[in-house]
Write a structure and sequence with these properties.
- With 492 residues, the chain is mainly beta.
- It is built from six helices and 20 strands.
- Helix 2 packs across helix 6 and helix 4 packs across helix 5.
Length: 492
């Protein structure tokens, strides 16, 4: 990996205090996605593995396609509202972002298999149904703002630490820029040596602003088969797409002691460290599913989702600019560092059960197992992935996701739904589970239906704008999302 790039990307706003490599963060970011689904399944907390007969089976458990006895199509737009509350050095901030997206579009084609004359039409292979769907599985839209008065350290300590760890300034690197812009300097130490230290002193004001956009999506092709109305098998293939943009500005203001006409002078400064990341990728995985119905009131489901194999193109750029009160100003960059690499996400095992209470509705529950330590990034000629892969092994863990939901049939037209889910954090420290509460309604009239769902997601995270050891300042983030989904469907 190019030395300038290595020294630069470790400063990207980190998701954990001990990991500052860009790619190990992105590996987890792109692995923690939600299964695409209709509003009906979202309304029961996405606990749809054993349900069957819903268009969500195309992107979830393809065995559920075997339950269809007709063809069907639907579309689902969504509204996403993100809010992030932050606490940094005792100061509170809040930021928000909202956007409209296209969540899901699905179609299933029912194909009844012919049965020899005189044979029981409820035994043997009864149908093979085919489905295609587009699903949005991850939403990266969010704004994050945090800041406060730092009386203990400065980002200049981070720049100086890079230079000291190398024993010298890296030509054209971030520490070299900081030296050129009078943010750090070489100071004599006891014993006749020297080391780099920050020029800022006293209290500095720090403010970080992050703007993120993009998302992940899948195109799913699947089929499901029905055997004797008891056993259902399914196979699906998914083609995934990643679009992720992150623009980050870390601003610091204060007073620095710099040389003016070879005389140490206290001068006010305003400095911005700007980072811009644009990531695009595509990948594929396969899903195998089964649903068994031992009795009419009980359905048991299982899905195996293979690792997704991605090819990713990443473009990271950074720049540093500083203005001093004596009218001197400096600017370096932006300099772009493009890189392409391969990534393998973890496989996922999902089990589910659903209990049907006659014509009155059902209760459903799902459990996922995902081992995030198996995420792997492949090296190429210009980049060694050893550091990132070791971080993945050391800092991440296996998790269990759990979801439960229910649907009540109020009458022949109206349905009421609710659900709750916990998505386990892949981080060993400085992260929390994501909790989801959902509620929804459905209306059926003839061949048409409308389903609406509200989902509230919440979780906490600690991020560090720069790393200087035990004194690194951290921002505690409380993230919430309030999302709404509307499905319009037609059976034919």
């Amino acid at each position: 990996m190019k030395i300038k790039y290595l020294l630069s990307v470790i400063a990207i706003v980190a998701i954990t205090k001990d990991s500052f490599a860009q790619y190990s963060q992105d590996a987890i970011r792109f692995s923690t996605f939600q299964t695409g689904s209709t509003s009906r399944i979202k309304g029961i907390g996405n606990a749809g593995t054993a349900i069957g007969g819903d268009l969500s089976s195309i992107s979830g458990n393809p065995a559920g396609l075997g339950f269809f006895t007709h063809s069907e199509a639907s579309i689902t737009p969504e509204f996403d509202g993100s809010k992030v509350n932050s606490t940094y050095l005792g100061q509170f901030n809040t930021d928000s972002k909202s956007n409209l997206n296209f969540s899901n579009a699905s179609v299933v084609i029912y194909q009844r298999l012919s049965t020899p004359k005189g044979r029981d039409k409820t035994k043997g292979w009864l149908s093979i149904n085919y489905g295609a769907a587009y699903s949005r599985t991850n939403n990266f839209y969010e704004n994050i703002t945090y800041g406060g008065k730092n009386t203990s350290n400065s980002i200049g300590d981070y720049y100086a630490g890079i230079a000291n760890s190398n024993g010298q300034l890296s030509d054209g690197g971030l520490d070299d820029w900081a030296y050129q812009q009078n943010l750090i300097d070489s100071y004599a130490t006891t014993g006749g040596g020297s080391e780099y230290r920050r020029n800022a002193y006293g209290t500095v004001n720090q403010l970080n602003n992050t703007i993120r956009t993009g998302g992940q999506s899948e195109v799913n092709l699947a089929f499901g088969a029905n055997y004797s109305n008891k056993l259902y098998f399914g196979l699906g293939v998914s083609f995934s797409d990643i679009r992720y943009n992150s623009y980050n500005v870390f601003n610091e203001t204060g007073t620095a002691n710099i040389l003016v006409n070879n005389i140490g002078t206290n001068v006010g400064f305003n400095s911005n460290f700007v980072q811009d990341q644009v990531t695009k990728g595509s990948g594929a995985n396969v899903k195998l599913g089964v649903i068994y119905k031992p009795v009419n009131a009980l359905r048991l489901g299982f899905t195996f989702t293979s690792p997704t194999y991605y090819t990713i193109d990443d473009s990271y750029s950074e720049g540093l600019n500083t203005n001093f009160a004596n009218n001197s100003s400096f600017k370096n960059g932006p300099v772009e560092y493009p890189l392409s690499y391969n990534m393998r996400t973890p496989l996922k095992l999902t089990g589910g059960a659903a209990i049907f209470i006659g014509k009155y509705g059902f209760i459903s529950g799902d459990v996922d197992y995902i081992d995030y330590t198996t995420t792997h990034i492949s090296s190429n000629d210009s980049y060694s992935a050893d550091f990132d892969n070791s971080n993945i092994k050391a800092l991440y863990r296996s998790t269990v996701n759990a979801r439960i939901g229910a649907e009540a049939r109020l009458n022949s037209m109206f349905y009421l739904r609710g659900g709750y889910g916990i998505q386990g954090s892949p981080l060993k420290t400085n992260g929390s589970d994501i909790k989801t509460v959902t509620g929804g309604i459905g209306v059926r009239f003839g061949s048409y239906y409308v389903d609406a769902t509200y989902a509230h997601l919440s979780g906490n995270q600690t991020v560090y704008p720069y790393e200087i050891g035990t004194g690194s300042p951290g921002a505690n983030l409380k993230k919430t999302n309030n999302n709404a989904f509307l499905t319009l469907g037609y059976a034919f």
